[in-house]
What we know:
Elements: H1 52-56, H2 59-67, H3 80-99, H4 104-119, H5 121-139, H6 154-169, H7 180-194, H8 196-208, E1 212-220, E2 229-239, H9 266-294, H10 297-315, E3 324-326, E4 333-338, E5 353-357, E6 363-367, H11 374-390, E7 398-402, E8 407-410, H12 415-418, H13 423-437, E9 443-447, H14 455-472, E10 476-480, H15 483-491, E11 497-507, E12 510-519, H16 526-533, H17 538-549
Parallel strand pairs: 3-7, 6-10, 6-11, 8-9, 9-10
Antiparallel strand pairs: 1-2, 4-5, 4-7, 11-12
Helix pairs in contact: 2-3, 3-10, 4-10, 5-6, 5-10, 6-8, 6-9, 8-9
Amino acid sequence: MRRRRKQARSRDVIVPPSLFFPGEAHTPDTELDELEYDEGEYDESDTKKRPSYFRDLQLHIAINRIVNEVIPKSRDWDGRETQQQRGRIARELEHILCACNSDLEVADYRLATLDYLMHDTPAVKKVENIFAQLTAMDLMGTHRLHERMIEQDISYYVEMFSHFMHFVDNHEPFGDDAPLALKKLDEYILNLRGAKTYQHMREITRKFTGIITVDLRILCHPHLTAKNIIAAAINNLKPGDDEQRGEFHDKIDLTWGYEDREGHNVFQKALHRAMWLKYDRDFANAKGQLLGAASLFEELGVYLALTRYFHKLEDNGFPVCKPELFPAETQHTFVQGMKHPFLYSSGGEVVDNDVSYDKERHIMVLTGPNNGGKSVYVKSAALTQLLAQSGFYVPATSAIVSMRDNIYTHFVSPDDITGGEGRFKNELRRLKTIFETATPQSLVILDEPCGGTTAEAGEKHTRDFLEVFGQIGCPVYLATHMTRVAETLEQNPLSGVYNTHMSFSRDNGSLQPLFKLVRGPSPSDYGSFTVIAMGMEKDVLSDRVRRRLGVSS
């Protein structure tokens, strides 16, 4: 039995740049042929391993909508490979959002790339062309080449490398005005063209893509079964034409002829084996180049998806902008015309709001009745912060954003009921984690943090928590329907804390939410007003019950 030769490791593998991290190669600490790739579709259900803001901000919805722009979600099981591609792009985007990047250089590096693509249509076309070839390579299994290469139809590798050649040879540079990430991509592709392994594989691929002349020598068992092929070697392989198809041209059809009793095409098998024995080392050497290119699939997919998604928001009347980023120490953020991106498909007019905080006024208390827009506002503020410091556009007309070292959220959780402990205890447990880890450079979003206890106790504890957050010094958004919290702050102010509320109008005895943020506490008890507007006062309810049951007054 012939022993397989050890696959040679190429000495001139060109390592691709990272399009997300400046100054890094794509795989700084890992051999290209030892990379591990995630398989399977994107699993959005398991949120326990992700930061709390992933669930509270419903980031799985954002990720799915963004990735839909490059690979739509399919319910057809036949599209399994495509959905695996979709899953890898989704996980790449999730990894970025869950990392909560606080490095200003990294964010600016990504922003420059995305901003360039948002304003340069030809550049987007170039990215689309690269992504199309990487997609074709990926569907053929390029991302699994880190596994042991196996002997199979030589056309599989020829076709894969043909896509690779199309990606490399037909690339047009982005130009001198391109951002650093795309300049690195240009340099990477230029270096690929000059690599000896690439040039050699290009010659081999071109030979196989046309009509060829083969001088084939086969040693096999007399019964001529495919499994008894002992050796097969190609003595000569060169480009041919219609007049030069070899001495078997009129005698043997290598594609359809000479099948044995088991239905195996013996000569075709011999030809494939001969080609593999002759060129397996060349394919092994080229594996590193193919893997390197494959590693760009997810990053380019994310950039392309984001570009299309933000353009879609613009087309639906949602302004988007490149945020201006500053170090966390500046403690200053000002966003104008902010909208929650999930609302673009809801229909109707979406009201925009502003975000503003600095060192002097960094804790906002937001009051108002339910369904008035409190939760949407604080979620929008957190999502805007996360997108900005991740290096992405934000849904606003303008944005000045200070970086944060982390984002902490506290929303009503299903675990408050199903986790085997009372809601208030669960709320306190999550708040304790925030108090133990938050720094002056963090961002904290609280939605009804003390809703699991009595109103009186909730108001007291909420004020206590606000005072401690003031000692930490981090920006905080606290949304609550407890108007007494705002009233006590007006009477006894806390340093850095200020009141806001979501405005309403009174039309014909009913409340109409305006979804607009206004400074100051809620002007009235909206809860009582809502009870009256819905006809839920005691006298009205009693009269309805008596009439329904036929009881006289």
